[in-house]
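Dear support,

We are seeing what looks like truncated structure output for some complexes. This example has two components. We would appreciate it if you could run it in full and send us the complete token output so we can diff it against ours.
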Amino acid sequence: MPNFSATVSVTLKTTVNDPEGLTIASALHSLEFEDVQTVRVGKIFTITLQSSTKKSAEQQVDEMCKRLLANPVIETYSFKVVKN
Amino acid sequence: MPNFSATVSVTLKTTVNDPEGLTIASALHSLEFEDVQTVRVGKIFTITLQSSTKKSAEQQVDEMCKRLLANPVIETYSFKVVKN
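Here is the complete output from our reference environment:
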């Protein structure tokens, strides 16, 4: 089966408070990056998987996001699958 | 000054062990995603900042990566700046 590589971004919903992002913004201000307005932090997963077609790889990755990688209550996700 | 939005990805170098990724790969196998081969985990930062030009925004973000966001010993970074 061909190999695919998926890049999944999981970020907090905009309505959810992000203390890590606030801390980083404050640290950037201390380092004299005063033009920084907001910082939001998320996770990125790079997954390699085998699949018969690109469509089935995308379906699998979507399922992984729903079941493990993202918490749908507070997070949103997006991903891109490319053939290796 | 115009607003820019930067998306910064910080990932572990491929030679660096990623125990979080290994744990997630193992969890995905347990959830019957048996075609998953490897998982690598990184961070994504979404930064909004003011800057006079796109070029100066990119220079600022590059500087932020070097000084705070990434650890150059074990991590690599990439970013994309777009005008809001």
